[in-house]
């Protein structure tokens, strides 16, 4: 039904799980090589929450307000990214020079072009993790318009339309994997990573009432996919990614059934997940260059990222949040 969307702490708990999985993967902790699927959990969550926001706004206002939506997204996400870029450029004289100059890499990042930049030119380097922010940003640009078109159809065709789009996006990635490029392009390109966002969007349109069984199925699916997934392996981008996305959707739809996900340290980490994601990767990549990986990298890089995330959250992100006081903003999604 309608009404204002209420805050679901367990979804922030889920964000924490996703970001810790990605951090462990980047730290190269043994046994976490499937941790990159944490990004897919973020994508499904984003697609779900963004679509819920748009649908609820439509219930309240009778329309989709594109301008307001874009302003909220940028206000929510850009300040923290600009802070990272400012620090990156200030530190650039001491950073290893790779993949062209630092200013150009920062510009590619600031313009949200890292997805295609990394896919085709392997640039930016130290900021290559921002490819997933670019994927989300491109989704935010296109999806309100596509959803607006879908909502013009009769209501019972909304869900089938979303499912068909998610299926098409999945098959497109499989096609790219098998006929164009095994890993680099399909992993980083926006058009090949649309599937999770669309699966999340389909879940938001579906909004099933019986969710008790979902985590029971979702957790094993996600764990099994992550256990089998290996970087650079085409099966990871076909079978395991699809299973991870479906597991993630079931987990998200049934998240309020899992009290463990609303445990306060997890919820706290979830609120910081965007900052953690932004700051952990450059630290862990530089540590890797010094031969520091595994739990040591997780401890050092993780502590650094947490300190930066807290600082970012308390300063630039707080300013952008205070502007949104006029409306409940439980749903700013953390880009992967």
For the CA atoms, what is the radius of gyration?
19 Å
Number-wise, the strands total 0
Q: Which shape, going by the Cα principal axes?
A: globular
Structural class: mainly alpha
What's this entry about, in short?
With 336 residues, the chain is an all-alpha fold.
Folded structure, characterized:
With about 325 residues, the chain is an all-alpha fold. The chain has 15 helices and no strands. The protein has helices spanning about 10-25, 40-60, 65-90, 100-110, 115-120, 130-150, 160-180, 185-190, 195-205, 215-230, 235-255, 265-270, 275-290, 295-315, 315-320. Helix 3 runs antiparallel to helix 4 (about 100-110). The chain is globular and about 60 Å long. Mean pLDDT is about 95; it is low at about 330-335.
Keywords summarizing the entry:
336 residues; globular; disordered C terminus; mainly alpha
Task: Show the helix and strand layout.
Elements: H1 9-27, H2 38-61, H3 66-91, H4 102-110, H5 114-121, H6 131-150, H7 158-179, H8 184-188, H9 194-206, H10 214-228, H11 234-253, H12 264-271, H13 273-289, H14 294-314, H15 316-322
Helix pairs in contact: 1-2, 1-12, 1-13, 1-14, 2-6, 2-9, 2-11, 3-4, 3-6, 3-13, 3-15, 5-6, 7-9, 7-11, 9-11, 10-11, 13-14, 14-15
């Amino acid at each position: 039904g309608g009404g204002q969307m209420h805050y679901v702490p367990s979804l922030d708990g889920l964000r924490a799980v996703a970001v810790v999985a990605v951090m462990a993967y980047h730290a190269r902790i043994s046994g976490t090589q499937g941790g990159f699927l944490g990004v897919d959990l973020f994508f499904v969550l984003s697609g779900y929450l963004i679509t819920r926001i748009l649908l609820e706004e439509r219930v309240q206002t009778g329309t989709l307000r594109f301008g307001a939506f874009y302003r909220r997204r940028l206000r929510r996400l850009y300040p923290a990214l600009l802070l990272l870029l400012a620090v990156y450029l200030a530190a650039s004289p001491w950073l290893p020079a790779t993949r062209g100059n630092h200013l150009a890499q920062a510009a590619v990042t600031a313009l949200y072009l890292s997805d295609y930049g990394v896919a085709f030119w392997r640039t930016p380097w130290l900021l290559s993790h921002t490819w997933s922010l670019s994927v989300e940003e491109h989704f935010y640009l296109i999806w309100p318009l596509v959803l607006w078109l879908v909502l013009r159809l009769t209501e019972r065709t909304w869900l089938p339309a979303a499912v068909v789009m998610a299926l098409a996006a999945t098959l497109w990635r499989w096609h790219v994997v098998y006929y164009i490029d095994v890993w680099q392009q399909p992993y980083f390109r926006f058009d090949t990573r649309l599937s999770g966002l669309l699966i999340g969007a389909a879940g938001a349109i579906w909004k099933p009432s019986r969710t008790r069984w979902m985590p029971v199925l979702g957790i094993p699916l996600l764990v099994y996919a992550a256990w089998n997934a290996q970087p650079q392996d085409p099966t990871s981008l076909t079978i395991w990614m699809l299973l991870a996305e479906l597991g993630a959707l079931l987990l998200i739809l049934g998240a309020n059934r899992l009290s463990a996900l609303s445990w306060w340290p997890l919820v706290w980490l979830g609120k910081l997940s965007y900052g953690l994601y932004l700051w952990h990767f450059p630290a862990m990549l530089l540590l890797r260059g010094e031969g520091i990986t595994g739990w040591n990298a997780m401890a050092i890089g993780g502590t650094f990222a947490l300190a930066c995330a807290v600082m970012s959250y308390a300063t630039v992100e707080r300013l952008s949040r205070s502007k949104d006081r006029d409306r409940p903003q439980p749903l700013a999604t953390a880009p992967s």
